[in-house]
Design brief:
- The protein is mostly helical.
- The chain has one domain.
- It is 73% helix and 0% strand.
- It is built from twelve helices and no strands.
- α3 packs antiparallel against α7 and α8 packs across α9.
- The termini are far apart.
């Protein structure tokens, strides 16, 4: 039951964070948001970990936690924020739905993709092409597209790194170390990439940062780290099926973002591709097959 609660938390809350990021970008730069968001979230997570008297990870595992924090939060999350400067929240969320596809690719040595899996991978590429192929009414931002191709790949790699190399330490303490790493990266990179602010600080942007720190980071990221250890990657990664639906709904309702027939077609293809990979029959690994 706890794993299912964690799954629903990640699916719903992270779907809403695309909308919150768009609000935060009214005032903050991408790395300015990383710095402020994860500074507060890391302090809260580490404080809660101390109140619960959680065990500290070993020095070796702390190093791996820093790697995971740098990949997931300091890099992938910042790329998502950058992409939202140039494209809609719904489109960003759809491309981020490729995370479970990459998780399947990275784990295919133990869980081979099989014919359906490779078909799903090809469909995913087709879905991205449908979404971003130039047309008379569509403007493509190359940097945003590159960011959203790289972000799910980096996120998936970092997730598996943590799953393989981190086994000790308390949940909130480990999450706090990862977020503190991202905060340091944000504080270092923001002055070199346009500063911390894009405009005057608005109440909406402050509310968004608070929501992202408390719900998107401490709550949902903790749920994600727990889920990554409780479920196999293929099952866990399906949270990304629901994220775009929540993001598109909020973007359409509150940000008046256009997401027409072509967008929905691309979304349907990508989600079908991810589902095809995740729901494929399990194929034995080579060493498990009978000769």
């Amino acid at each position: 039951m706890l794993a299912w609660l964690a799954y629903l938390t990640v699916a719903i809350v992270w779907g809403s964070t695309y909308f919150a990021i768009a609000l935060g970008l009214e005032s903050f730069t991408p790395y300015g948001m990383v710095a402020v968001r994860f500074s507060g979230a890391s302090l809260l997570a580490l404080s809660l970990g101390r109140l619960r008297r959680e065990a500290w990870p070993s020095m070796t595992e702390a190093g791996h936690l820093m790697v995971v924090g740098a990949l997931l939060l300091g890099c992938s999350n910042a790329l998502v924020s950058y992409a939202e400067l140039h494209v809609s929240t719904g489109l960003v969320a759809v491309l981020a739905a490729l995370v479970p596809l990459w998780l399947a690719v990275f784990t295919m040595a133990k869980e081979p993709l099989g014919p359906k899996g490779w078909t799903g991978l090809a469909l995913g590429i087709l879905g991205v092409a449908v979404l971003v192929w130039p047309s008379s009414g569509l403007r493509i931002h190359g940097g945003a597209l590159a960011a959203m191709v790289a972000a799910p790949l980096i996120w998936s790699w970092g997730t598996l790194h943590g799953k393989h190399f981190v086994h000790g330490g308390g949940l909130l303490t480990n999450v706090g170390i990862q977020m503190a790493t991202a905060a340091v990266i944000g504080l270092a990179v923001a002055p070199l990439s346009g500063g911390f602010l894009r405009g005057p600080i608005t109440p909406k942007a402050l509310f968004a940062i608070g929501y992202l720190a408390l719900f998107g980071s401490v709550l949902a990221f903790s749920a994600y780290i727990y889920l990554a250890k409780a479920w196999p990657p293929a099952k866990m990664g399906t949270y990304a099926y629901l994220n775009p639906l929540v993001a598109v709904l909020l973007g359409s309702l509150f940000l008046h973002e256009a997401f027409g027939l072509r967008g929905y077609a691309g979304m349907a293809i990508i989600l079908a591709a991810v589902a095809l990979v995740q729901l494929r029959p399990k194929v034995p690994a080579p060493e498990q097959r009978q000769i």
